[in-house]
UniProtKB/TrEMBL annotation:
GO terms for molecular function: exonuclease activity. This is Nuclease SbcCD subunit D. Heterodimer of SbcC and SbcD. Belongs to the SbcD family.
Length: 387
């Protein structure tokens, strides 16, 4: 069976004030053409279809168009909700839409109930594990403490139990939306840390033939059977070195996996340039970035006059301007933002305690801070569902 694995469309998202709806529509057209060209048997979409719980009307219309075009191909599609989606909204009408071959899996309780598809070699069970917010699904999966690994492990126990009851030789595909250990994040994914831990081990998914992951925006191979497709378009300058693509996966009769990367069309290249303003305006080696979307980091010790206007004369598509004066690390003018760069909420809170009190928190206090951060995240997740 030949699968096309994609994820993280983020319909409705912009890139530094530049609307991406046209590029997203181009991607949908490319997806449909790819299904035709490569005789794909099934499409899998591993979450974050939309960029937010209540997407703009234009994004909903594009999604509707995508559904109609995929259904018109007569090729089954299996799709799960991600942490950016409203599972309830995305899943509206799933039963009816399923009759057209578009299988929406947004209910955590149905994680162990597969979509069954078949080819000349027999049946393939597709298990859709939507994004599992630990605080919201803890009771459903009967785990003692809310955590990503615990709820995903419980969901996978249901998958393996269902698979064990099926005829020998039934092949299996799992769609999941999670941060799996070994994956490389970018700046454009929403933080899903719980209990100080965001990642889950790849071993959680043992026992199935292929795991189609979503959430991280870079295309990645964790194992031959566990892969991220990444987002089809860039959504932050941290993705400047990404090759945007989808996985074309062949699942043989015995469950052997072979995979090929198929490139996606992107509207413009991304470029991150760094130096003093005069260096960036004069360096001939930077001429190749004239038509790229540019993030310029200025290292001038004093902020120059009209930097954006001057940069856009040479680089018309400059979208982001960052000031990072080259100073000694102990210079008091080093910005607070730079000192916090790369630190998560838990670390920032612990550093604040140490700054105010003179000593850092003990183990009990760290646990209190962690529980508080998790409670805030859980409240935000509940609010997203309510919206």
């Amino acid at each position: 069976m030949r699968l096309l694995h994609t994820s993280d469309w983020h319909l409705g998202r912009s890139f530094h004030r530049v609307g991406m709806l046209g590029a997203q529509a181009d991607f949908i057209g490319h997806l449909v053409a790819t299904v035709r060209e490569y005789a794909v048997d099934a499409v899998v979409v591993s979450g974050d279809v939309y960029d937010r719980a209540v997407p703009p009307l234009a994004a909903v219309e594009l999604f509707d168009d995508a559904l109609h075009r995929l259904a018109g191909l007569g090729v089954p599609t299996v799709m799960i909700s991600g942490n950016h989606d409203s599972a309830r909204r995305l899943g509206v009408g799933a039963g009816l839409i399923g009759r057209a071959g578009i299988h929406l899996r947004t209910d955590p309780a149905a994680s162990g109930t597969p979509v069954m598809l078949s080819d000349a070699h027999g049946e393939v069970a597709f298990y859709g594990l939507p994004y599992l917010e630990p605080a919201l699904v803890k009771d459903e999966f009967e785990v003692e403490k809310a955590g990503h690994e615990a709820v995903l492990a419980a969901a996978m126990d249901r998958v393996r139990a269902d698979l064990a009851a099926r005829p020998r030789g039934t092949r299996s595909v799992v769609l999941a939306h999670a941060f799996v250990t070994g994956g490389a994040p970018s700046d454009s994914e929403r933080d899903i840390t719980v209990g100080g831990v965001a990642a889950v081990p790849a071993g959680v998914f043992d026992g199935v033939d292929y795991v189609a992951l979503g959430h991280l925006h870079g295309c990645q191979t964790l194992t031959e059977r566990v892969r991220y497709s990444g987002s089809p378009l860039p959504y932050s300058f941290s993705e400047a070195d990404h090759r945007k693509s989808m996985w074309l996966v062949d699942l043989d009769a015995d469950g052997t996996v072979t995979a090929e990367r198929l490139d996606c069309p992107v509207p413009r290249a991304l470029a991150r340039i760094r130096g003093t303003l005069e260096e960036l305006l004069a360096d001939p080696a930077l001429a190749r970035h004239r038509e790229a979307w540019v993030e310029a980091t200025l290292t001038d010790p004093v902020r120059p006059a009209d930097p954006m206007a001057r940069l856009t004369e040479r680089f018309p598509h400059t979208l982001s301007l960052v000031f990072a004066p080259e100073r000694a690390p102990d210079d008091p003018s080093v910005s607070y933002a730079r000192r916090l760069a790369g630190r998560d909420d838990q670390q920032i809170a612990e550093d604040f305690v140490a700054h105010v009190r003179g000593t850092g928190p003990d183990e009990h206090e760290r646990a209190v801070l962690r529980d508080t951060v998790d409670a805030v995240r859980a409240a935000e997740a509940v609010n997203e569902v309510a919206r």
